[in-house]
Amino acid sequence: MPARPDQPEASAASQDERGPGESAGGARLGFTLAAASLSIFVVQLDFFALNLALPKMADELDTTTTNLQWAISGYMLALAASLIPGGRLGDVLGRKRMLIVGLAIFGLGSLGAGLAPSVAVVIGFRIFQGVGAGILFPLAVAILTDAFPAERTMRAIGNAYGIGAVAMAFGPMFGGGLTELADWRAVLLVNVPVIAVAIAVVAMGVRESRDESVPRSIDFPGLAAIVVGIAAISFAIDRLNEWSAVAVAALLAVGVLVLAVFVLRERVARWPLVDLALFRNAPYVIVTLMSSAANIGFVIATFSVTIYLQQVEDYTPVEAGVVFLAASLAAGVAGPISGRLGERFDVPRTIATATLIGSLGLFIVALGSALGPYLIGLALLGLGYGIGWAMASVGTQTVVPAAQAGQASGLTLAIVIGLGGLGVSVAGVLIEVGADGGTLGSSIETMLRWVAIATAVAAAALGVIASRLIAERRAS
User: Fold this and answer.
1) pLDDT by residue (tens digit) across 17-43?
2) Which of 185, 317, 343, 392 is the Cys-Cys partner for 3 at CB 3.0 to 4.6 Å?
3) Rounded to 10 degrees, what is the CA torsion of 420, 423, 428, 432?
4) Domain ranges of the chain
5) What backbone torsions phi and psi does residue 437 show, to the nearest 5 degrees?
């Protein structure tokens, strides 16, 4: 799930709402930075902590851990579907107001999932929670862009993401510890007081802003079409092992048809949700696909390895969290590293190289070897895949015109996270199918080997295409 949302420019209208006597170095900037940091922190912590709780959740709710993949993939798909309209709603209705709305939805979703009596209720509230994350994530950056002077904006965003990286690094251990010492529900319920504090900080210290230059319209038919299309395809994949081939194929066809309707809608909509012209930009498409491959590898590894450690190797949740620190710490430092690499090296080929490193790490992990090599593999997959998906926004800025940078970055983030959610859905099905004919451990190892190979092949192929495009552009 991870990548950086777009950074909308503060409008003249939003600057006019600065109150008398407010200075750029005043306490309000501190409140704004704290609000943005808390928002990013809680989203990152939730994702990485909850993965460690899945086996305990499955035991209590009398289901399999792979059936609970929808608690992860449903959340990610809802987040992806909400990112672009979430940012647009903030521009239209007010960023402070919509950030509070997003935080409230996220908190209520956490509360509902934490108190849920059944698998279906958990998944429903997790999808609701994902909508809140999709609203608050881009607006957390938007309030920083609005509040800070231009020369301090990037540093402020970097500080907020640095705090988010702490959640990414220690989330698995935190989730494992809470699950073992208290209960899996505590992993979700702990979000509630943090969200309450974040809402209070936003209400007290963030000024309202909006962009008067954007249209006061959102393409709701287009939004409905893309959500229904993605949901139909995801559910069809999830039912592969339970429904007949005809029923699965029919639902897949419905999903594809609805997505085709979405494309047609965006071509005629006055204010389209997505500018389809971006997909005619070959370098942009390649960067997005490369980052998606890296993110798919990482989220599948996170989902599968935490199951493997607890249900195959019999680690406690705390022990599994400590082992997974090798991956999460490496992923946590990948963000700052990716920014520097993007300044010094060609972005597409850097993403390809990083993804190949991640694939090597995942292949080592898939061998199920001794703890030492296993930790090395986890560190490599965390660093390599982490750099690959963290460079999505960096790459976007280098291959599209400045006027399209914000929209392109937001669209990339939605695609990267959405495909990651689909990847987890497929991984859950493959693990179940493999376990039916063998053991859970061998099923996970086989699936991870194929994911490692697939992401490596995708990275290499896309890297070659990117190199040719770069050479052609330089020649012309």
Assistant:
1) 444 334 444 667 888 888 888 888 888
2) 392
3) -170
4) 24-209, 219-272, 276-476
5) -100, 0
**Same CATH topology for 24-209 and 276-476?**
yes
pLDDT at 213 over 70: no
Q: Which CATH class is domain 24-209?
A: mainly alpha
Distance (Å, whole) CA 221 – CA 265: 8
What is the pTM for the complete model shown?
A: 0.77
pLDDT of 359 reads: 97
Residue 459: CB atoms within 10 Å: 28
- Helices and strands, number each (H, E), in the chain: 16, 0
Distance CA 247, CA 33 (A): 50
Q: Give the count of beta carbons closer than 10 Å to the beta carbon of residue 16.
A: 9
Q: Residue 372: exposed, middle, or buried by beta-carbon count in 10 A (0-12, 13-18, 19+)? A: exposed
Range 276-476 classified under CATH 1.10.1200.10: no
- Look-up of token digits 């500018």: 275
pLDDT band at 151 (very low <50, low <70, confident <90, very high): low
> What's the gap between Cα 413 and its chain centre?
7
